[in-house]
Design goal:
Layout: E1 2-7, H1 15-26, E2 30-34, H2 43-46, E3 52-64, H3 74-78, E4 86-87, E5 90-91, H4 103-107, E6 113-127, E7 133-139, H5 146-164, E8 168-172, H6 179-185, E9 190-195, H7 199-214, E10 219-224, H8 230-242, E11 246-251, H9 256-262, H10 274-289
Parallel strand pairs: 1-8, 1-9, 2-7, 2-8, 9-10, 10-11
Antiparallel strand pairs: 3-6, 4-5, 6-7
Helix pairs in contact: 5-6, 7-8
Length: 290
């Protein structure tokens, strides 16, 4: 099974729009995993039906039983996260501040504190308008452990691919180089790096590739809006050649890219445009090199 992960060093490069286009081109032959769980938005282009939904639990959070609590305040005194304020005359745990370290439970003299599994988000398995299945998720407000939710999304997508005999899983990863990106890259067979010809785009492109390099994964790049700055575009191409990053395509600036998004469509299904043919060729190159 091929696991193709699409990432970018920064947000706003067009990564998700390009990934959705590849998912549309892949059709019934692929399974999609939207691992950008902190700010998932691929559903706006692929229109999933949210056929299956389940809660996702990870980590622990403290809870004080008001019937047992004597109000001694020892828990609040030792909490280094200041997560146990007094509310209406009683000690309560602030869910957004609690780190689940379990220290308060251990020192409570009357055992009024318990540690409970924390619901940090939701996982969905959907059918999309492209004729494929998509695994996606939504991280709760202020929730952590997004790397674990990413791993769950990926594992579900691979399970579906194995059960249905699909050879390709397309993963839309988070921007940046943090824990969710590391989780997205684990087990990947090919990485598509989406960037733009700006100073910050080139800086973050190099930064995220250094992460990919540590995983020893073959990579290719797509420069979106490549004609906006020919000098920086050349910098990206020269760096990629030196690092043996495969050139997949250079996408020129085209207002139909934005017009398609406004209509809730991928660029490859939005009438006749120059980008459609380029992305069709790009998809063939990705399948060849992955």
């Amino acid at each position: 099974m091929k696991e193709i992960v699409v990432i970018s060093g920064k947000g706003g490069t067009g990564k998700t729009s390009i990934t959705a286009s590849l998912a549309y081109l892949g059709g019934q032959d692929v399974v999609i995993a939207d691992c950008d769980v902190d700010a998932a938005d691929m559903h706006m282009l692929l229109q999933p039906d949210f056929n299956h939904a389940e809660d996702f639990y990870s980590g622990l959070i403290a809870k004080i039983d008001p019937e047992l609590c004597t109000g001694c305040g020892e828990c609040a005194e030792i909490c280094r996260f200041n997560a146990i304020p007094i509310v209406d005359g009683q000690y309560r745990v602030n869910m957004l501040d609690c780190e689940g370290c379990d220290y308060c439970r251990r020192i409570c003299p009357v055992e009024a504190i318990t540690m409970n599994s924390q619901n940090i988000g939701n996982l969905f398995i959907s059918n999309t308008k492209a004729g494929n299945q998509m695994v996606h998720a939504k991280l709760g407000i202020g929730a952590e452990n997004s790397g674990k939710l990413v791993a769950k999304v990926k594992n579900e997508a691979k399970r579906i691919a194995n059960e249905t005999g699909k050879e390709i899983v397309i993963v839309d990863g988070s921007p940046g180089i943090g824990c969710p990106v590391v989780s997205s890259l684990s087990g990947a067979s090919f990485v598509v790096l989406v960037t733009e010809p700006t100073v910050s785009g080139f800086h973050d492109f190099k930064r995220v590739y250094q992460l990919v390099k540590k995983f020893n994964i073959k990579a290719g790049y797509i420069i979106n809006k490549s004609d906006l700055n020919s000098q920086v575009c050349q910098y990206i191409e020269d760096y990629s050649e030196a690092e043996n990053i495969i050139c997949l395509s250079n996408l020129p600036y085209d207002e139909t890219f934005t017009e398609a998004m406004v209509e809730g469509l991928t660029i490859v299904e939005y009438g006749k445009n120059a980008l459609k043919k380029i992305l069709e060729h790009t998809w063939e190159k990705i399948k060849k090199y992955s």
